[in-house]
Fold each of these.
Amino acid sequence: MPSRTFVSDANIKKSLPPPKVIGPTTTKATRPTNKIPQDIIDGAKVVKKEEFDPERHLQFQPPTYIYTMKEFGFEGQGISPVAASEPFPLFTPEAIKQIRAEIFSEPVLRDCQYSSSFAKNMIRGMGRARAPFTHDAWSSPEVAAMVSSVAGIDLTHMFDYEIANINISINDQTTVISSDGKVQSKDSTSAFAWHYDSFPFVCVTMVSDCSEMIGGETAIRTPSGEVRKIRGPAMVRDHSLHLAGPHVKPTLIHEQGTAVVMQGRYLEHKALKSIGGRERISMVTPFRPKSPLIRDESILTGSRAISNWSELYHGYTDYRLEVLEERLREKRKSERIREDTKRPFDCESMRRFLEDQIAYLETTYSEIYPVEDMDED
Ligand SMILES: [Fe+2]
C-alpha cells in the first residue's frame, strides 16, 4: 500500500519547539488496587491460539474523512499535514478475540498491570513472549502501511515495549437517568485530562464491544481556544442504515476492531467520557517516522512512571541510537559524494546537521535518569 511523505527535511527545521508534555503525578510504577472482574478474564479465553495472519486478521478500509492540521489551526506544525482520522475498520473480530486473550492471560495480568494518576487500570509492555499475536500485528509491515496511509507519512511502531498501552475501564456503576432526562454516571475512569502525547502519532483501537455505549469522543483544543470534537475509535457510522434510504437517519454503531489515527504529540486533546456498557478497553499504539531523517520529538514523559523502566529505557535508547547511526551514515555518504564532485565544503550545512544531532542526543540523555523500582507485593 503506498503512503506518502509530505515533509522534507528542509521545512521541518523551521518548526516551532514541540509542545510541553505533562506526565502523571505518579513517580514510579504502581500496580492497580482494583482488580479486573473474573468474568471478563474468563470471557477472554480462546480455544485455539492463532498466529497473526494479515490476510485473515485485517479488514482495513480507509477512513471516510481525515482532519488536517490546517483545519484545526495548526498548519505547518507536526511532521505531517494530517491531524486525525474518522474511525476506520482495522482488525477483524477474530483478531480482537486473539488480542483480548493475550491481554487477559495469566502472565500479562501478573507482570504488566499499571496504574497512574491519569488512568486506574492499564496494561503495558506485554512483549512478544507474552503476547505474540498483538506484537506481530502491530510490528507487521501491513499494519504500518495502513496506519501510514491514514497518517500521510511513512510511520513505524515506536519500539517494541510500547506495543501497546491498553486502557481498561470497567463500569460497574449503574447509569443514572436524572429528572431532566439526561444520562449521568459517577464513573469518571474513561476520561483523561487535556494533554499532548509523548510520541508523534497514535493509533487507538477499540477492543470492547461498545454497542451500548454513548459518548467517547476525542476533544481537540485549537489555538483560538475553540474545542472541536471528533469521533472516538468505537464510533462508526452504520452505513447499512444509511443505504436504507434518505428517510432513515444514519446512526452510530460502536464496533470492536475499529481504530483512529491522531498526531497526538502536536494536538492538545482529551478523551471524553463514555457512558453505558460494562467495559471500555482501548489499545493505544504509538508510531514514529520511519525515515530517520525526519524530525523526531519523542520523549518518555507519559511512559516513565507506568513502565518497567529497564525495558522502556532499552527500547528508547536502542531506537534513538539506531536513528543516529542512520543519520551519521547518510551524512557521511553525502559528504563523500560532495568531495568526489569537487564542490566546496558547506560549513553552514554541516554545522546545522551537527547541531541537530547534538540536540537529539541531549534529549535522549535528559530522558534517561534513574527511576525507583516499583514495590512488588
Ligand atoms: Fe493522548
Amino acid sequence: MPERSPLSALPACFDPLRARPLRALAALRLSCATSVTTSPGRQRSAVRRCADQLRFTLIAEASDVGVSARKTSPFERPALSPWLQRPHAYEADVWSHVDRAVRSVQHMTELIAWARRHGRILVFGMPEDGFPLVMTPLSGDSVVQRCVDLARDAQQEAETISARLTSAHAALRETGRYGGGLVPFGYRKAPHPSGSGWCLAPDPDTAPLVRSIVSDVESGRSLLAIARDLNEQGVPVPRDRHAQLQGRSMGGRRHGRDFDRFRWTSGTLSKVLRSPTLMGHRTHGGQTVRDELGAPVLIGRPLLSDAEFDALQVTLRARSNGTHRPRRRTTALLIGVAHCQGCGGRMYFAARKGYAYGDYLCRATARGEVCPAPAGMRSDWLERYTLDRYHQATGKDGRAVREGLLRDGVRVTAAKGRRGGGPERNHGPDTARLTFTIGEPSDSRWDH
Ligand SMILES: [Zn+2]
C-alpha cells in the first residue's frame, strides 16, 4: 500500500473533490524493441491505475507504436504531438512509466517547460513505489529534480543498450557486403566500413527484440504464444519491417487477399530463429554461405554468438516433437550412427557441463583399444550435419529419431581433426572430416 496518497501531491486548485474530475490523456509509446512488460495492454492498465488513484477521468489515448523515445521527442510523436498542441483539451498527461515518455534529459526539460507554460499536470507511473510521480504547475524543485533524474536513468539505460549494439565496430571491417534482398530480421542496412557498398548492422529497434524472443524460447514459451505477443504489440514481421525501413507501406497482397500488415505465426518466428543470419552469416536457401576455406561469409555483426545460436537450435529441435516438455534423451541421437574413422568403432556421447551440447568421441579407449586417430566432434554440429544430410537424402521433414536413422541405415563417420586452426574452427563442423551414407547395410564387424 502507498504510504501517502498521491492526491496529496495535487495542489488545492486541483481539488479532486470538485464537481468535475480532471480530464487526463493516456499517453502510450512502444518502440519495436520491447518486451512483454511494455505491451500496450500493460501500459494501458498502468495508466488507468494512476488515473484512478488521482481520480482523473481518462478522456483519450495517444498511442505511438514503433516510435523510439531516443530519436523522437514527445513533440514529434505522431499520436502525442497533436495533443500537446491542444493543451486546453485536458488537464493532465499520464504515462505508465517515465521511459514511455522520454529517454532524454533534454526531452524531459522540454516536457516540464510545456506543462508549466500551460498549467498542465504530468503523471508518471512508478510501479515500484505504488503511487505515481505527479508534477503540477506548483510542484517545487524537488519534484522537478526527481523527474529529471528519472529521465537521466532512462537515457543511460538507452545508451547502454545502444553502446552494446554498436561496439566492436572493428569487427565489421572483415564483414562481407550485403547485396540486397530482404534484410534479415534484427538487422538494418548500413554503409560498409570500407566506404563502398553496404553491409548489415544490428537494428537498434529489432535486435534487442530478437534477444528477448530467444530468452522467451529458452524459458519454455511456445512459438505460438510468442507470435501472439508480437502481434498484440504491433511488432512488424520481417517483411513489413523491411518495407518500413525502406519507407514503403506495410502489408500487401497474399493468397488473393489484401493485408494492412502481415501477422506473426509460429512459422515466421521459427524461420527467423533457425536462420544462421542470427550469427551474422550470409545465407543462401537458409544455409550458411562459406568462403573457399570453409569459413562462414559474414554480412554483419552477429546478434547471437555461435554458442547461443547452437543452444537455441537444440531447444527448438527438442521442441518440434510437438510437446513443450523438455525432452530427456536417454540415448544420444547418433549412438550407433556416428563412427570414428580411425578405428571404425562407434562414437559415444559425452556431456559438457554447463553446455546445451556435448561431444561425440571415439570410444576405443573405453574398449581397451588404441585408436590410431581418435575422432571427436561437438554433438550439435554432428547432429545438425547428419540431420541436414538425412533430410536432404530422404526428403523427410520434422524431427528424426535415432531409431529412424538406424532403420534407414544412416551412417556417419568422423575423422580426427587437426590441432590448432584459425577462428573458422569455431564456426561449425569441418565437413571435409565427415562422410554420410544412407541405406547401406550396416557393417557389423565394426559395430562394437
Ligand atoms: Zn577411433
